[in-house]
Automatic annotation (TrEMBL):
<protein>
    <recommendedName>
        <fullName>UBC core domain-containing protein</fullName>
    </recommendedName>
</protein>
<feature type="domain" description="UBC core">
    <location>
        <begin position="1"/>
        <end position="100"/>
    </location>
</feature>
<dbReference type="InterPro" id="IPR016135">
    <property type="entry name" value="UBQ-conjugating_enzyme/RWD"/>
</dbReference>
<dbReference type="Pfam" id="PF00179">
    <property type="entry name" value="UQ_con"/>
</dbReference>
<dbReference type="InterPro" id="IPR000608">
    <property type="entry name" value="UBC"/>
</dbReference>
C-alpha cells in the first residue's frame, strides 16, 4: 500500500503546483522529498536544492525545519505530498516571506 500511495503522489506532483501569482513567479525551485520506511506515519524530510529565502528553511542546508513549518510539525497520516507542496507554496506567498 505504501508504494502505491507514493507512486500516485509522484504522478500528481510531476504536473506542478502553483498558479503563478506569488513573488516567486517565473522561478524554478528544486527540492527533495525523502520518505523513509515509516511514511506516511511520519512526515517526509524536505530539502531545497535551490537557494530560497524562507523563514522555515535553514539557509545553510536548505532543509525545511519541521518546528518552523506547521504541516511537518503536526503531521497526520492522511497528509500527502500534494498537501505538503501546496502548504510550501502558501508559505512562500506569506507576507513574512515576501519581505526577506
Amino acid at each position: 500500500p505504501r508504494n502505491f500511495r507514493l507512486l500516485e503522489e509522484l504522478e500528481r506532483g510531476e504536473k506542478g503546483i502553483g498558479d503563478g501569482t506569488t513573488v516567486h513567479e517565473g522561478r524554478i525551485y528544486q527540492l527533495k522529498l525523502f520518505c523513509d520506511k515509516d511514511y506516511p506515519e511520519k512526515p517526509p524530510s524536505v530539502r531545497f536544492h535551490s537557494r530560497i529565502n524562507m523563514t522555515c528553511v535553514n539557509h545553510e542546508t536548505g532543509v525545511v525545519e519541521p518546528k518552523k513549518f506547521g504541516l511537518l510539525a503536526n503531521w497526520q497520516r492522511e497528509y500527502t505530498m500534494e498537501d505538503l507542496l501546496t502548504q510550501l507554496k502558501k508559505e512562500m506567498a506569506a507576507p513574512h516571506n515576501r519581505k526577506l
